Amino acid sequence: MNDHPRQIWKAWLDGQTVQFLADGEWKDAEPNHYPRIQQPQCLEGYWRIKSDVTPLIEVVRELLEDLESRYIETHCGCGHPACKCCKGDDETARLIARAEGKLEQ
Q1: Which of 43, 49, 7 is nearest to 29 (CA)?
Q2: What's the pLDDT band for 105 if we cut at 50, 70, 90?
Q3: Domains of the chain: which residue ranges?
Q4: Cβ(14)–Cβ(21) under 8 Å?
Q5: pTM to 2 decimals?
């Protein structure tokens, strides 16, 4: 057995939540409830250990869309050097561009 399936089984035995990729979605799963041909040792890429950041990762696209929408709705654009709104708009625009892979950190 390779290392990844071994880690999945160990995590599950230690009480951690493991997930199975079914119908394009990661779902909490119990490996021993699946037929042998779907267990971690046979379908390595379909199993993962659920991490603390998994819920955040699942909503990132929605958060980015919400940020873009709010940016468009509230964009000031007056251009005055002392305008705090424009400064915030610039920071938001950079963050959106970075999230879309248009800028590096």
Answers
A1: 49
A2: low
A3: 3-50, 56-99
A4: no
A5: 0.52
